[in-house]
Amino acid sequence: MSAGQTPAAGGGRHRRGAALTLHRASAWFRSSRPYLMLTGFGLFLGGWYLAVEVWKLPRFAEMPGLTVVVKEWLSKDPTYGLSLYTPEYYQHIGRSVWRVAQAFTLATVFGVPLGLLLGWSKRFRDYVFPLFELLRPIPVLAWVPLAIVMFVASESAVIYLAFLASFFATALNAMLGVESIDAHYVRAAECLGASRAQVFRHVILPGALPFIFTGLQISVGVAWFSLVAAEMVSGQYGLGYVINTSYSTVRYPTIIIGMITLGVVGYVTSAMVRVVGDLLMQWRVRELALRGQS
Amino acid sequence: MTAAPFVHRETAAPAWRDVPVAPGRTAPVAEATPTRGAIRIENVVKVYGGRSGAVTAVDGCSLDIAAGEIFMVVGPSGCGKTTLLNAVAGFHDISGGRISLDGQVLCDSARPQAPRGSDRVVVFQNGALFPWRTNLENVIFGPVMQRKLSKRDAIDKAMDMMADAGLSGVEHSYPAEVSSGVRRRVEIVRALMNDPKVLLLDEPYRALDALTKSVMHEALLRIYYKNKVTIFFITHDLEEAIFLGHKVAVMTTRPCRPKMILTVDIPHPRDYSVLTSKRFRELARATSAAVHEEALKAFQSGEREG
Prior knowledge:
- The complex is a heterodimer.
- By secondary structure, chain A is mostly helical.
- Chain A has two domains: 20-63; 79-290, MetI-like fold.
- Chain A has helices at residues 17-30, 33-54, 66-74, 87-120, 122-135, 140-150, 154-180, 183-191, 196-233, 239-248, 252-280, 282-290.
- Chain B contains nine helices and ten strands.
- In chain B, a hairpin with a 6-residue loop joins strand 9 and strand 10 (258-263).
- In chain B, helix 6 runs parallel beside helix 7 and helix 8 (238-244) packs across helix 9.
- The radius of gyration of chain B is 19 Å and the shape is globular.
- Classes of the chains: A mainly alpha, B alpha/beta.
- Chains A and B meet through helix 8, helix 9 and helix 12 of A and strand 6, helix 4 and helix 6 of B.
């Protein structure tokens, strides 16, 4: 690669920020990917429509059809009480997003430092990691009774449950991130006169960042997962609550609306984490782009 | 070590070594030639492993490296020469002997591991530029961490040094975006920014192709003529060693100790025409038998690269 001789001013390699995003968006539209994506969605929705409403397969006898769900969702006067035009719909979304945001923030604030310390200090790890590994596999649902007993307010219990799974995913990945760092970087920093604290701040932290962000993406995912589980057990409002109550009151199209909404909101939050990661790790974005993996 | 043209011990010891040196580092001699960065390696032993599988990597190794000298250490892969470099850098302890820098003991039996410090900066075999910093941010790392220079002054100095090393234009690229030859030069400049006494190079050009290598050799010499820092350079390439070095130590394989020490009497500054000169050929011929013998030994004992 002769990039070494390229002046900084020339070439499309040095785009940053918004220009880079625009450049990538236009490249995306020129590739085959958006059309393949639409085809994939089309096949799935078509299969749903055919299976339920045209062929009426026995397995899907109770299942709401595509057209029923879409009509309900877009209706100004929904049969089962929840659509794009009812304020309750946004109340539920808002409540769930707010809970996930709190759980995710707590998990990041506590999980990242814990994971970095686990990877950085052998002694700390010997103390904490066995306990950590014992608590980590306990499923969130097994924590439900304890959470309800511990927290009088159901709101805190729900957030605590969503926090737990995220916390473990975040801490574990931060730890793996520290372990992934080439020991030569630490040696080089020490050679160049960096103190132990500076090595931590300028080598361990940035070196672990790719893994940390992988962890945060998993963390948002499992936060939604455990939030919905928690909302189904206790609490009022929230998309998990919608799905659960719709089931007990036989409002099947509303269940599907809740599910699809969860998918969309979950995807958006996950994408937001990825965008923040890309902004913080321009070096990695460019490195992957050079290797053709962007 | 006794071969006729290869005398070096007397010249290697700086004249002021017998004079008591104050705890600072200013030697009581005013010379135009470099006065700092003399390394003395005395009877160094390094044994790896425990009771069952102890491996003697270095045994009874003594080397004298004069201040401001390019000292090349040649040996087959896995002969233990990197162990020696790691001991000087303070990455490993030693099992016996002593290493001193400008008369001050770095490590001996009382303190087996040398402190790591910016007076001895290592340039690694596979490169260790931080991929999350641009080339310029890498270069200013040392002085900014040590608070020797403000960030602004460090940037000014870095820009000058990078320009000198032919690195204008790559300052704001990340290491992954430039060629491996450019990366190595950036790494050497990063080391020199600390004004070290010694530059420790661990086969820095191993992964480069022959053409890039030849360019890199001349670039390194140009940097050296400007900075006159002691260079302790490890390689398995004999021609590279003779082309660059004031002295070339051919090492035995496991345990590692000098087999012969060659003083390269081709005057500096050198350029690539040296490679085709008669004297270069003679010196290469005189040493290649020794190198080949050790390579064969290493091959037969099936040493892994390292």
